[in-house]
Specification:
Elements: H1 2-23, H2 31-36, H3 43-54, H4 57-60, H5 62-70, H6 76-99, H7 104-111, H8 114-148, H9 150-153, H10 157-160, H11 165-188, H12 190-220, H13 224-235, H14 258-268, H15 271-278, H16 283-297, H17 300-304, H18 306-314, H19 325-333, H20 336-374, H21 380-401, H22 411-435, H23 441-460, H24 464-471, H25 473-494, H26 517-534
């Protein structure tokens, strides 16, 4: 146990020191330097930051938890993500960089009007504060509790203060990670976040693969990894299918509706994720970073799905909660020094997603609300300061909400369901704004408010929630998306803009595209299709 703790503290401290060293002379005072990293990010930093921001504990713990329950079919979240990243590089990123924006709502202000930007900002902030940040902290705490067995490390302290050990450990980790992550995000800015992401990304990828290899070796006993792989296939042959049946969380048909749309929003329009692409030094660097992320995502199932399936075999017959399976597997199969290393990598993943979401929240508030609504004449210093103050408020709220998620059955499923409320309307408005020139601002505002309201009613208001359940929530999201797009296009025909929208190149970065962007994207899509079809067994769809 001492070895585990020492290695954990060493690797965690090493990332912090290296991040400070690499960013010690950065501009943290201007809004461009603080929120966009001075538009100096190159493709390795963009790819590393994109990957680790995505590879947080709601992925490591949540998706492996779903694999523990449903098997290989949940790999759809990783596979479809690659296609979404290709679309980001080809279509969305050039339009964002051309306008020189720091946030998605800023783009909507340019395309539509100021009120559209304000509404989008409020929706983003509500979602990040009430949904995303608490989930990141909660899943991180659950993962760390399993990996390091934190309740046992606390001894009799929880009982001394009259609190259960698991509850005490949950609150302790949530607040420790929340405070450290806030320091990263609020004192360092985007480039500090990106550098720490890239460093932690190396550790997380190495650690993620180590879990898979050690877990297979553990399952195989004296036969090692090959024997473990054979046992896994034999024991779970019916679960080794990329096609989900109607009883799984991801039925096959939902790939073409809600799952695809949620991935498209996540990788093309989600401020928390794509903000680092806005800091690209050029369009070519941004495209290379996005497509490299797509290539790396092809490896995702090896450490985001397979460990959950191995845990299903390792803990067969034991009654454990799915979201605790991954942490327990790590604790079971890794040697103490490597457990400490992986715990440090997990902390890095938690911090990465938390400080990225927090940095994006600050950016949305400072540039989208404070400077454009509350104090239009604010200086650069005042804008940055407002973001830091707002960030601390948001962090405290998230730390208070996170432990309340303890009774959630599937944290990954809960996250995707809640994401749909704001993913779908925002993505519909952005897409219509990019593909049309005459759709007016009133259509965008109706789309945002109507989409958010309809999805919320469908989720939570009887009897509509029963209707949605009968359709499957992902099909429901697809129907709402199609309705919103048609509604906005009809409004554009009935009440078009007086003049066509023409996007201007503000000269923020070099807009020369990477010459290999198209062929690289085609190759990635072909690989995705091949992997998916190779592992598919369509007999599960037979009535």
């Amino acid at each position: 146990m001492i070895t585990t703790i020492v290695s954990f503290l060493f690797f965690t401290g090493l990332v912090g020191v290296l991040t400070w060293w690499f960013t010690r002379e950065d501009d943290h005072e201007s809004s461009k330097g603080y929120f966009l990293g001075g538009r100096s990010l190159t493709f390795p930093l963009i790819a590393g930051s994109l990957l680790l921001t995505n590879l947080s504990t709601e992925q490591m713990v949540g998706l492996n938890g779903d694999a523990f329950t449903d098997g290989l079919c949940v790999m759809v979240w990783e596979v479809v993500a690659v296609v979404a990243l290709v679309f980001m590089a080809w279509f969305f990123l050039p339009r964002f960089l051309k306008s020189g924006v720091a946030t998605v709502p800023q783009y909507l202000e340019i395309r539509f009007d100021h009120q559209t930007q304000v509404i989008t900002n409020f929706i983003f902030l509500l979602a990040y504060v009430g949904i995303l940040l608490p989930i990141i902290l909660y899943t991180g705490a659950i993962g760390m509790m399993g990996i390091l067995d934190v309740p046992s490390m606390l001894g009799g302290l929880p009982e001394a203060v009259g609190v259960e050990a698991d509850t005490f450990a949950l609150w302790l980790i949530v607040w420790a990670v929340g405070i450290i992550g806030s320091i990263y995000a609020l004192f360092g800015g985007l480039r500090t976040v990106a550098v720490s992401d890239a460093l932690n990304g190396i550790g997380l990828l190495v650690g993620g693969f180590l879990i898979t290899f050690f877990a297979l070796s553990h399952l195989g006993g004296d036969g090692g990894i090959p024997a473990g792989a054979n046992i896994l296939v034999e024991q779970q042959r019916d679960r080794m299918n990329s096609i989900g049946n109607n009883e799984s969380k991801v039925p096959f048909g939902t790939i073409f509706s809600g799952i695809f749309l949620l991935n498209l929003f996540y990788w093309t329009t989600n401020q928390q994720i794509i903000q680092r692409t806005f800091g690209a030094s050029s369009l070519a660097e941004g495209q290379k970073g996005v497509l490299l992320t797509g290539a790396l995502k092809l490896l995702g199932p090896l450490y985001l799905v397979i460990p959950g399936m191995i845990a299903y075999s390792v803990f067969a017959g034991e009654s454990i909660k799915a979201d605790k399976a991954y942490g327990m597997l790590v604790n079971r199969v890794l040697p103490d020094p490597l457990t400490g290393f992986f715990a440090a990598a997990m902390i890095g993943a938690i911090l990465s997603s938390f400080n990225s979401a927090l940095n994006s929240s600050c950016t949305l508030f400072s540039l989208g609300l404070y400077k454009s609504v509350i104090n239009k004449g604010a200086s650069e210093e005042a804008v940055v300061r407002s973001g830091k103050v707002f960030g601390w408020i948001v962090a405290v709220v998230a730390m208070l909400l996170a432990p309340l998620l303890v009774n959630t059955t599937s944290i990954f499923g809960y996250l995707q369901k809640m994401n749909g409320m704001y993913f779908i309307p925002i993505f519909a408005v952005v897409l219509v704004g990019m593909v049309s020139r005459r759709v007016p601002a009133i259509a965008a505002k109706i789309g945002l408010l109507a989409g958010f309201s309809v999805i919320a009613i469908g989720y939570f208001v009887p009897p509509f929630d029963l209707i949605v359940a009968s359709l499957h929530e992902f099909h429901f999201l697809g129907i709402v998306f199609a309705w919103l797009v048609i509604l906005m296009l009809v409004i554009g025909e009935v009440r078009p803009r007086e003049t066509e929208f023409i996007q201007k190149d503000v000269g923020a970065v070099d807009m020369t595209a990477w010459k290999l962007a198209t062929p690289a994207g085609i190759v990635l899509i072909m690989i995705v299709f091949t992997i998916y079809m190779t592992l598919a067994d369509f007999t599960v769809l037979a009535p």
